[in-house]
Structure of PolyA polymerase family protein:
Amino acid sequence: MNFKSHLDEIEVFSKVAKAAQDLGLEAYVVGGYVRDLILNRKKSDKRDIDFTCVGSGIELAEEVAKNFDYHVPVSVFKNFGTAMVKLEEWELEFVGARKESYRSESRKPIVEDGTLQEDLERRDFTINAMAISLHASNYGDLLDPFEGLVDLKRKTIRTPLEPSITFSDDPLRMLRAIRFAAQLDFDIDPDTFYAITQNAHRLRIISGERIIDELNKIMLVPKPSYGFKLLFASKLLHEFFPEMVELQGVDSVDDKSHKDNFYHTLQVLDNVSVMSEDLWLRWAAVLHDIAKPATKRFNKKVGWTFHGHEDKGARMTPGIFRRLKLPMDDRMKFVQKLVRLHLRPIALVKDEVTDSALRRLLFDAGDDIDSLMKLCRADVTSKNNRRVKRYLENFDKVEKKLMEVEEKDQVRNFQPPISGEEIMETFGLSPSKIVGEIKEEIKEAILEGKIQNKPDKARELMYEIAKSKGVSPIKDLPKSSSK
């Protein structure tokens, strides 16, 4: 198989080929670019290309940069023997052919110069261990010493070397195997998967940052449940996400059973993924029932209950994010909010639901109400199609009511019309409990529909509340507000 016609279409390949020739080096295109080219996978964002040469990758990168008519910066990473050339459309990474080995107690490899064959065999999977030659004698030829092309056709993930060696050397490759299987919808070779199960404990030497990077990539595939099922079956999930593992299983007492919350969670995750590519909404799906094992109780009259799992799950969210090295910022707060609120819309499907309840949900959810409703729809996983249809129609009604209430009362992203500063200034108060009480009663009155969400109405009520508490104003109520 030859890719000369493809290489001729993209200028960077001729630039790299010339630089390699000038230095007397053999250079090759390797890795994911080759795999995706064969699979005809196209990406809309900035593309990266990996190059390997038999010699110094840093020297090759610096020579390539000289071949452009304009200044091209080169980032050199001497400790790793690599260099990066960034162009407008491409990021080019260069490395000399090498072989690696790892000590059992270390995350850092021992790196030595190697041949192209040794460089390809140290790679994670056969589908990533192919190269395209940039040498004049066989320009564009595909070099495939480990039958990666066959595995692409078979849709199989397999290691170039004996899999236990590959995974023991770099345990992150076990997660990468599952990530590629999920992204490409491939199977994992049985021997390769068995080796993952035998080496799962080796994941402990990998940093949390590298683990979560792979997990987030699994989360973002069109059907992430496939990746999670592989993580569970391989025992990798047990190494870094025990809370999710605990969801699995069904308990029965007196012929009463609850559903398997692990597989329910995966169905919710897949349902959300159909609606949105938002990573953090997908994390909310993963964590929405995370506290069910901790809140599970059996009652002879009603069967299994999980009372309060939404609140406990929200309290668990920061700890899980922190341990998994996920961001402890507004993204965590978004997930935490959705976990806490995910049962609220279900209570609003009844015809007699009050505007007050709708206002409170809008107030609590704010701009995240649309994401919350997506999560709630995704949470309907019954196998009874009629029941699913009924629930989804009820959610349609809730969303319509929410729109009507919001249009009328404007409580989404509600900001109290009277600030604490105005209360203190009006009554000559310093920061105190009574200021908070007045402000809270005004908010409650608006949410209960007792007054409109308008400054003049809120100001009238402020004077009434203060009077009931024996507080006199030092400023009179404006005449325009007393009508």
Q: What stands out?
A: The chain has 24 helices and 15 strands.
